[in-house]
């Protein structure tokens, strides 16, 4: 089941899967609780197994109403089952209803194919985020 969730509900998965076990109190993002930001989660048997954060943020060089996708992750035991795809597609439909024009993200190299499968395109060369690894900026036109 997909639900809108609170920031604090994202922190365990962010810590364990995105930040190498970093103390969850250090896994918040700037803007997590800004007006327009929201978080979604996928629950399997009442356990949160996949999350994504969306922040209202224009991308330089693009016009219209933009959002950045951040911190999307599915617990390893639940990967490859279409959960991340369902979560992201739910969010894209929601954003479309909010008259958002595009979505962008700094995608990890291991997730390039996942985002391409949903329709995202590369808009940057690969760059390195210290400690985290190689990324490219990806873009999806919504409306």
Topology summary:
Blueprint: E1 2-5, H1 7-18, E2 38-44, E3 47-56, E4 66-74, H2 83-97, E5 102-108, H3 112-118, E6 121-122, E7 127-129, E8 133-141
Parallel strand pairs: 4-5
Antiparallel strand pairs: 1-2, 2-3, 3-4, 5-8, 6-8, 7-8
Description:
The structure is a single chain. With 143 residues, this protein is an alpha+beta fold. The chain has helices at 7-18, 83-97, 112-118, and strands at residues 2-5, 38-44, 47-56, 66-74, 102-108, 121-122, 127-129, 133-141. Strands 1, 2, 3, 4, 5, 6, 7 and 8 form an 8-stranded mixed β-sheet that branches. The protein is globular and about 40 Å long. It starts with a strand and ends with a strand. The model has no long low-confidence stretch (mean pLDDT 96).
Number of strands: 8
The major β-sheet equals:
8 strands, mixed
Share of helical residues: 10-25%
Q: Provide a count of the helices.
A: 3
Mean pLDDT, to the nearest integer, reads: 96
Q: Rough shape? A: globular
What is the N-to-C succession of helices and strands?
EHEEEHEHEEE
Strand proportion, as a percent range, falls in: 35-45%
Distance, first to last CA: 26 Å
Radius of gyration: 14 Å
* Residue runs with pLDDT of under 50 for 5 or more positions: none
This entry's quaternary arrangement is single chain
Structural class: alpha+beta
């Amino acid at each position: 089941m997909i639900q809108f969730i609170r920031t604090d509900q994202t922190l365990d998965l962010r810590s364990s899967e995105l930040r190498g076990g970093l103390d969850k109190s250090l896994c918040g993002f700037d803007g997590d609780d800004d007006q327009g930001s929201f978080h979604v989660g996928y629950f399997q048997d009442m356990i949160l197994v996949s999350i994504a954060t969306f922040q209202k943020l224009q991308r330089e060089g693009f016009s219209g109403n933009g959002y950045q996708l951040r911190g999307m992750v599915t617990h390893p035991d639940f990967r490859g089952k279409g959960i991340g795809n369902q979560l992201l597609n739910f969010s894209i439909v929601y954003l479309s209803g909010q008259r958002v024009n595009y979505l962008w993200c700094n995608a990890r190299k291991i997730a390039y194919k996942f985002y391409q499968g949903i329709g995202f395109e590369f808009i940057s060369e690969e760059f390195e985020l210290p400690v985290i690894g190689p990324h490219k900026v990806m873009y999806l036109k919504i409306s």
